[in-house]
Specification:
GO terms for molecular function: oxidoreductase activity. Pfam families: Epimerase. It comes from Pelagovum pacificum. Keywords: NAD, Oxidoreductase. The protein has a single domain (about 5-280), classed as Rossmann fold (3-Layer(aba) Sandwich). About 35% of the residues lie in helices and about 15% in strands. It contains nine helices and nine strands. The protein has helices spanning about 15-30, 60, 85-105, 140-160, 180, 185-200, 240-245, 255, 270-280, and strands at about 5-10, 30-35, 50-55, 70-75, 110-115, 160-165, 170, 185, 205-210. The strands form two sheets. It has a seven-stranded parallel β-sheet with strand order 3-2-1-4-5-6-9, with helices on both faces. A two-stranded parallel sheet has the order 7-8. Helix 3 (about 85-105) links the parallel strand 4 and strand 5. Helix 3 runs parallel beside helix 4. The relative contact order is 0.13.
């Protein structure tokens, strides 16, 4: 991959864990990188990076950022289950604001950090692919369904391409037994986003953000044209993770659905806290 393949790229959610991992590789792909988040700017910026503090729920703040952009990589959101009212502006309205501003300014593509929670109630044992119908497990997952459907509509009605990446569990290392299937390494996440940007034409595409795990409950076989070839495998951590796992329970939807603990929590209650309990070997 050569440098400066694109003119201007915009990255939202740049202060989050995944957004921060994307800043450097994206800067090498563009002459100009605009990064944004609701938080203050990072301590150091890359040579071609401009940071703008902005609230995704405020269209007037978002719209100018997209002027002249070829693509927007939309990773900004609250990344946990919350009451609908808490998610409404950042996750629902924020997604609309990005797509609308991208279209108004003639951008070519939105690369969107969707989530496995858009289909979180699907069973692990079914081996779902990218045609799986929406089955959200939370208000958080429902927001991902909304944005995916909007992405398809903006492609079919307005010609704005979209790649929606249903990310599973993206962490430096797999954290629990569920992650033996769901883990996405940072290295593979960067590769997936890069492929979503570089692929010449995508129309509307859904792909799963998952590493090359032996136990992956999802399949990307229908979107091979993206050229995504994950390099990492959570199986390397299997022995250690099984040693601290909770007891198997076929009635526990946290263990049997692709959304994991998000599939089991009451609507509006944190899924991240439930994942922490699973990681600690607690029910």
């Amino acid at each position: 991959m050569g440098s400066a393949l694109f003119g201007k790229l915009v990255l939202t959610g740049a202060r989050g864990n995944l957004g921060n991992e994307l800043r450097a590789p994206l800067s090498k792909m563009a002459r100009e990188l605009v990064t944004t988040d609701i938080l203050e700017a990072p301590a150091e910026l890359l040579p071609n990076e401009t940071y703008v503090q902005a609230d995704l729920g405020d269209y007037d703040a978002v719209e100018p950022l997209l002027e002249g952009a070829e693509m927007v990589i939309h990773f900004g959101a609250i990344v946990d289950e919350r009451p609908f009212e808490d998610l409404h502006l950042p996750n629902y309205v924020g997604a609309y604001n990005i797509w609308q501003a991208a279209w108004r300014h003639g951008a070519r593509r939105v690369v969107y950090a969707s989530s496995i929670h858009a289909v979180g109630m699907a069973e692990n044992a079914r081996g779902i692919d990218t045609d799986e119908p929406h089955r959200p497990d939370t208000f958080y997952g429902l927001a991902k369904c909304f944005a995916e459907d909007m992405g398809r509509m903006y492609w079919e009605k307005r010609g704005l391409e979209a790649v929606c990446l249903r990310i599973l569990s993206c962490t430096p290392e797999p954290q629990n037994v569920r992650a033996l299937g769901s883990w996405l390494s940072y290295r593979d996440m960067v590769q997936l986003v890069t492929r979503a940007i570089e692929t010449p034409t995508v129309g509307f595409t859904v792909a799963y953000g998952v590493s090359n795990n032996d136990r992956a409950p999802v399949s990307n076989h229908k979107v091979g044209f993206l050229g995504y070839k994950p390099q990492d495998n959570a199986e390397d951590w299997a022995e250690a993770l099984f040693a601290k796992a909770v007891a198997p329970d076929p009635q526990d939807v946290a263990q049997t659905r692709v959304g994991g603990p998000f599939a089991a929590v009451p609507l509006g209650e944190s899924g991240i806290e439930a994942i922490k309990r699973m990681t600690e070997g607690k029910k």
